[in-house]
Amino acid sequence: MIKIDGKTFVSDNSGKAKFSLIFNESNYIEPKILEVFEGENPISQKEIDFFTETPIIIKD
Q: Which of 2, 31, 49, 54 is most enclosed, with most CB atoms within 10 A?
């Protein structure tokens, strides 16, 4: 499971999740916190913004 700005995204069986974020000229440099959970336990966290390279790959 992934959380970004209070929104939850569910990953598939291979651990992949799709999401989109809307950036505009007033928020494109404000980082968002992407949190990765295994069940209820946080396992990783990363700041992302408009300039973050995609796809975002989180390795444990």
A: 2
Q: Please, are residues 3 and 10 in contact by the beta-carbon 8 Å criterion?
A: no
Of 38, 49, 39, 40, which Cα lies nearest the Cα of 4?
A: 49
Q: Which of 59, 38, 8, 14 is nearest to 46 (CA)?
A: 59
- Separation in Å, CA 30 to CA 15, 16, 24, 50, 54: 26, 24, 10, 8, 17
pLDDT digits (tens, 9 = 90+) for 6-42: 899 998 998 899 999 999 999 988 999 999 999 899 9
Residue 55, classified by CB atoms within 10 Å of its CB into exposed (0-12), middle (13-18) or buried (19+), is: exposed
